[in-house]
Amino acid sequence: MKSVLNSAGNLKRSKKSEEVSDVIAFEQDILLGSLCDTVVPKLVAEDLPLLSNLVSGVFPGTEIPKIKDEELLSALKKECKRR
Hints:
Largest sheet: none
Oligomer: single chain
Number of domains: 1
Helix content: 55-70%
Radius of gyration: 15 Å
Distance between the termini: 36 Å
Strand content: under 5%
């Protein structure tokens, strides 16, 4: 919990909250991003659906964001094919 909150604080400081019209959606995005950054990498694949269910219960209508770093995804795919 502490690492999620620390990460959320860092994400919030790095984004411009003054420009946000919907504060609740902004804070939900911050918390979801923090949760994904800190918790998801520590889970095994079988636990991701459980986390997704928990997240949808706490934040209705949301889902765990997918990785959007195309350069990282491309490098991962290349390495997987190589191996």
